Amino acid sequence: QTYTPRVAEIPLRPGDVRLPEAGSDGTSKIQLKELEQDMLDLHRRLLVVSGSQQSDPCGFGVIASPHRPKLRAGEILRDPSVLYVSRPAAYAAVHLPQFHAVEVDGKGRIGYWRLREDAFGHCSLTFYINDSSMSGTTPNCFYHTKRDRFSMEEYFCIKISADIEPGGELLAAYDVCKLSSVD
Predict the structure, then answer these.
(1) What is the 3-state secondary structure (H, E, C) of the chain?
(2) pTM for this one?
């Protein structure tokens, strides 16, 4: 039996951060409910913006909330909108546009972290983090995984590598295509 993903009923709009519909790619309603709360927590710290607040003249970027304390170097923010897919990373390279997935780095795992999949109506906040090389600056964050001590489940995170003032843009190095090691 072949599974054909259905196109999300409400298309993604520019700047949307959205979890996939329950059941569309193996996620249950219970999992999505938990992720929604985690998303609210992340949205208190980070905002997707367009215009002069960010470095992509034609698109969007992610900034530290202007109403919260600065993000400190070493701080780790979980992005629950990035979903792990247990298929070979080569699948993502063939089926998803560039920058829509991040390859898992070794440790015997085969898979990738999905940042965006239009067919499922899914787009993560991390998808909007811009490339530091486009603005000629040093990255102030990078992609990271963190393992829960009790469940051993891995989570996709953004690790802050330099202090970011409120309203400052998060910038990663796109040429680093694999994740840092799991904590």
Answers:
(1) CCCCCCCCCCCCCCCCCECCCCCCCCCCHHHHHHHHHHHHHHHHHEEEEEHHHCCCCCCEEEEECCCCCCECCCCEEECCCCEEECCCHHHHHHHCCCCCEEECCCCCCCCEEECEEHHHCEECCHHHCEEHHHHCCCCCEEEEEEECCCCCCEEEEEEECCCECCCCECEECCCCCECCCCC
(2) 0.82
